[in-house]
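user: Kindly work through both lines:
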Amino acid sequence: CTTLADHKTAMMNFEGCELKRFATNTVFADGDPSGRIMLIGEAPGRDEDLQGLPFVGRAGKLLDRMLAEIGLNRRKVYITNVLNWRPPQNREPSPEEAAACLPFLHRHIELADPKLMILLGAVSVRHVLGLTEGITRVRGKWNLFQSVALNRAIPVMPTLHPAYLLRQPAAKRLAWRDLLAVAEKMGELGLA
């Protein structure tokens, strides 16, 4: 695939992940890749599966408010997930399911060509950066995603998933610190 539209078509036609059989929609992405800020979550939930867009349920509403606090919105960022189909009962994806989708995710990153990425939750951190430590240990620290195809490293900020923040509201202060670091990096990169 050489364009995001081609990539979306390839995902829609892909039959190599068992999750697709149980999904209502392929949840590809939302937002504007030209904003050069890419957010990657875990997998679609019930609302996302029904609407065919990432982060549109309760966690998505919280994410929208979080982004607004640093001057961003869905028209300025590009949002996708590690998996493009909802796992049954919103369970964590199996290693096999993630492995089937990872080549698509890596190509998605290359085609979107972000200058900065935000990883939402432990699953995206594990599959994008290969880190197995818990999210509370890696959040708030800048990492680099080395893209061979783009021939550069992309700064990556791991942070807490909005769904986790709905369950643990006291952790919002940690996510706020991460967002402040993102806002500062946006200024350094000319994205503000």
